[in-house]
Amino acid sequence: MGAPDATNTWYPTVDGNDTANAWTPTDAGDDAIAVASCRSSSGTADTTAVEINGWTTNADNYIKVWTDPSLGNRHDGRALDSGGNYTGYAMKVTEHWVTMIENTENYTHIEGVIIDGDNYAFSGISASGDTAGIVTYVDSCIAFNSSHSNAVGFMSSGNTILKISNSIAYNLGGYGFYQHSWQPQYYYNCLAVNCNTEGFHFGTAYGNAVVKIQLLMGIPLIFLAQ
Length: 226
Hints:
Elements: E1 34-37, E2 50-52, E3 63-66, E4 90-92, E5 98-103, E6 108-111, E7 114-116, E8 122-127, E9 135-139, E10 142-146, E11 152-158, E12 161-165, E13 168-172, E14 175-181, E15 185-188, E16 191-195, E17 198-202, E18 209-212, E19 215-217
Parallel strand pairs: 1-3, 2-5, 3-6, 4-7, 5-8, 6-9, 7-10, 8-11, 9-12, 10-13, 11-14, 12-15, 13-16, 14-17, 15-18, 16-19
């Protein structure tokens, strides 16, 4: 490749004769999309909590934290197999009062992650922040395994919008899905099983909840006004 000329035009040949394929670099295009593909070669859980902040995003240039099914990193719909092994990439809580994935950035997608509460007080995946209208998308995630009354699988707070689909919370001493945001929340095709306080908590003092095709099993309460 040749050197650029005075107008910063680059040519594929040193002599600069191939003008048909010349190009000029520019920063006027879209920003790069940040993608984190989660995996564990040993099959053990990741114990490091993650906070997502400090990014500039938009609808076309978003943050994606996910497990790639084509690489064998995505669970099969179960957190554990018959032998007690994780069926895909997992994060495991190792202390009280931790949020395993906390997002404060707009247009963030979190897909296919297992959160193991390991009997601690914790939040699995949380959408938080004070900027109105920040949207977090969660799909195909599982939160489970804590008898603590302050265990929460999925939650939203502040002024954020949580759009969550195809996700499961089970065997939690607290809440499966907990709304604590002033903005509307959207739940589609989610399952809560044996969440002792509530499967789905929608406080009436907060934003509206759009709920479609939710399933609950072994749960004493569905909604609690506050």
